[in-house]
Amino acid sequence: MGVVYMPRANDLTPDRSARHLFGAKLRKYREAKNWKLEDLSKRVQVSKSHLSRIENATFMPPPDLPARLDALFGLDGTFQELFEIARNELHPDQFKRRNELEEKATVIKEYASQIVPGLLQTEEYARAQFLTHNYKATPEEIDKLLNGRIARQSLLWANPNPDYSIVLDESVLRRSFGGPGILRRQLAHLIDCALTRPSHTIQVMPFSHGAHGLMGGLLALWTLKGGQHVAYEESITTGTLLEDKTVVSDRVRRYDRLSAAALPPKMSVDFLRSVMEALPDEHHP
């Protein structure tokens, strides 16, 4: 498991972003009242641990907190204005932050439109993907990426491990990296995961369904201990963490609608098997 670095008071960097400035001002006004985090927690009905993370700029404030803070400290919209800016910022070091959140999740839900997501990739599929996307990379750089990818997958069989659900668009199953042999073994791995890992749920969204509300890149939804929900959207070369409650709730609803429309798990396994069996022989196409 990764270790989340929690800054001390003198480590706050309010000039770094609106999120950091929000946290610095929250600590400043709290300490001016001689309140501990427990004291503030009772007044705003937000847990001590969550307030600590807000002060350290590692979590977005819940949308209803800024107005309560302005009222509590007698301010004319200071926290509300900072929140409106902070909610539109990309989180600094977000790829590191993304991995830390994934490691802490008790429930992981994903949707993939083009590529088998990293947590379910075979080693040879992952290597072929990295070579395709990083065609100028050295063998050492590819090995480093691959080692990181495989290391991430260990969380799915840790003890305890998160509940994992994935909806795969049919295009994921039709597009190969490295040829039909690699894709065949990747599909076999997906089938094995679906049949032998009770905590895994794999569904397929067939072309026959038509358009849906998550067409595009990759979406990951994480439920953390305590019930907080965080979303992550990934495009070709960039990813965006979404922590605003309203935005994340929208992604959760879209995913739930998608999962309800996708093939059920058993039919999805049958579909995976049919695609795998229809692939040309890699030696005799």
TrEMBL record:
GO molecular function: DNA binding
Domain HTH cro/C1-type: 26-80
Top-level lineage group: Bacteria
InterPro entries membership: Cro/C1-type_HTH, DUF5753, Lambda_DNA-bd_dom_sf
UniProtKB keywords: DNA-binding
A Pfam cross-reference name: HTH_31
Name of this chain's protein: Putative DNA-binding protein
